[in-house]
UniProtKB/TrEMBL annotation:
<keyword id="KW-0812">Transmembrane</keyword>
<feature type="transmembrane region" description="Helical">
    <location>
        <begin position="12"/>
        <end position="29"/>
    </location>
</feature>
<protein>
    <recommendedName>
        <fullName>DUF2231 domain-containing protein</fullName>
    </recommendedName>
</protein>
<feature type="domain" description="DUF2231">
    <location>
        <begin position="14"/>
        <end position="132"/>
    </location>
</feature>
<dbReference type="InterPro" id="IPR016923">
    <property type="entry name" value="UCP029509"/>
</dbReference>
<feature type="transmembrane region" description="Helical">
    <location>
        <begin position="49"/>
        <end position="70"/>
    </location>
</feature>
<feature type="transmembrane region" description="Helical">
    <location>
        <begin position="114"/>
        <end position="133"/>
    </location>
</feature>
<dbReference type="InterPro" id="IPR019251">
    <property type="entry name" value="DUF2231_TM"/>
</dbReference>
<keyword id="KW-0472">Membrane</keyword>
<dbReference type="Pfam" id="PF09990">
    <property type="entry name" value="DUF2231"/>
</dbReference>
<feature type="transmembrane region" description="Helical">
    <location>
        <begin position="82"/>
        <end position="102"/>
    </location>
</feature>
<keyword id="KW-1133">Transmembrane helix</keyword>
Length: 146
């Protein structure tokens, strides 16, 4: 009996989907950094920056979520990975929406809820981006006859 390792790569992520996933993460990270700056300096403009960065991240996350939903039906053997990516994007979108509503408050009313939500949204966006880009497989081993 011989072990045969199949090294065919999985279907790569579509370039447009990659751009959408990759664009949301730095926007949410910028919102988090702006929230940190606001919590330390009390300058209202940092809160405004955070609100706009979160809104931009929501736009890209929403379109990436739509793409992931469509990809659920085209996934084939990668269905489990597509479901994980879709669920993580859905969590990111839901947390981002709540975060956007919190940042619509007045000045210091966003703290500390906005900062905590920004941390959670950034982590969720990082996980969603990672799961979307992890389309490579190391190889499948199967046993063959000699």
């Amino acid at each position: 009996m011989v072990a045969i390792v199949d090294h065919r790569p999985a279907r790569a992520i579509h370039p447009l989907h990659a751009v959408l996933l990759a664009a949301a993460l730095p926007l949410f990270l910028g919102g988090l950094l702006s929230d940190i700056a606001y919590s330390r300096s009390y300058e209202i403009q940092w809160s405004n920056f955070a609100a706009w960065l979160i809104a931009g991240g929501m736009v890209f996350t929403g379109v990436a979520l739509l793409w992931a939903f469509i990809d659920l039906f085209r996934a084939g053997r990668r269905r489990a990975r597509a479901v994980v990516c879709f669920v993580l994007l859905l969590v990111t979108f839901a947390l981002g929406l709540v975060n956007a509503f919190v940042h619509a408050r007045d000045a210091w009313g966003t703290m500390p809820d906005g900062l905590i939500l920004s941390v959670l949204v950034t982590l969720a966006a990082a996980l969603a981006t990672w799961s979307g880009f992890s389309s490579f497989r190391l190889g499948e081993m199967r046993l063959g006859e000699m």
